[in-house]
Amino acid sequence: MRAFRVHEMGEPGEVLRYETVEPPEPGPGQVLVQVRAAAVNFPDALLCRGTYQAKPPLPFTPGLELCAEVVGTGEGVAGHAVGDRVLGSTELPTGGFAEYALMNEGAAFPAPASLSDDEAASLFIGYQTGWFALHRRASLQPGETVLVHAAAGGVGSAAIQLAKAAGARVIGVVGGPEKAKAATELGADVVVDRNTEDFVAVTKELTDGRGADVVFDPVGGDSFKRSTKCVAFEGRIVIIGFASGTIPEPALNHALIKNYSLVGLHWGLYRQRAPEVIGQAHTRLVELADQGLVKPLVSERVGPDGLADGVQRLADGATVGRLVYAPAS
């Protein structure tokens, strides 16, 4: 089969090599899948750079999230059969940027018929992250205001739709007019281009000085620091990640005097400690997809000729919505 592999750490555009390799064999509890579409995520770029928390042995194939067809099962697999259309996360080092990949049985879920392969490939990591952040960690309530950073990105775009589906008002923060257009199309009530506007001032004006009840922050750095200036009394700042490359050092006395909470979300831990809740979230996400309340914004589809450049552009913050790899393209 053909697959992209990383042999040494570096920038995605330089280290992703398209090679011919033997297809993987499913082990106990694993399923072998033929990849229909694999969504590109920021952690795929971090894997290439060697800065992600998971460090698979070299060489490895990135691609953490996909939609695929089951073509083989390992010993003990009972919940999946050949021909099933599934979505979920791959089992590194055999990721989704290939013609075939491996998935653990518990990480493969039925793909909803209401979504295309490209859309279904994008429903797992970003939407699961958004669901857990807003509902399990921030306990979002109808009528609250949610401030979403990187609102046109993979997890940010999911957060907009999930917050709107929950009855919240959404302020999306983006960088540039193209991303502002995408965030508006996703359903954000107000979109702030951070290159030309101050999201702190806009948030305070929109909420009559109260501030945002929930801040969804996958960026860190200055976005986090300035968010503390416009978070509401008893608000919640959910820390998703640090796409800016800067891990902020919060002034905890400020959280004390303003009565807001700093809430961390490492979604991957649920796979280890409470995997059943991931299945529960998937069921709810499928219901929302079937109702038309969530629909991944797939803005670009690339084949083998465009993947390495696409992952690099995502790493550089130059993509909008979801970028999807299709091996057959």
UniProtKB/TrEMBL annotation:
Enzyme Commission number(s): 1.6.5.5
Database matches in SMART domains: PKS_ER
Keyword Oxidoreductase: yes
Protein name: NADPH2:quinone reductase
Positions of the Enoyl reductase (ER) domain: 13-325
Source organism: Lipingzhangella halophila
Tagged with keyword Lipoprotein: no
InterPro entries: ADH-like_C, ADH-like_N, ER, GroES-like_sf, NAD(P)-bd_dom_sf, Quin_OxRdtase/zeta-crystal_CS, Zn-ADH-like_protein
Catalytic EC class: oxidoreductase
Molecular functions (GO terms): quinone reductase (NADPH) activity; zinc ion binding
Keywords annotated in UniProt: Oxidoreductase
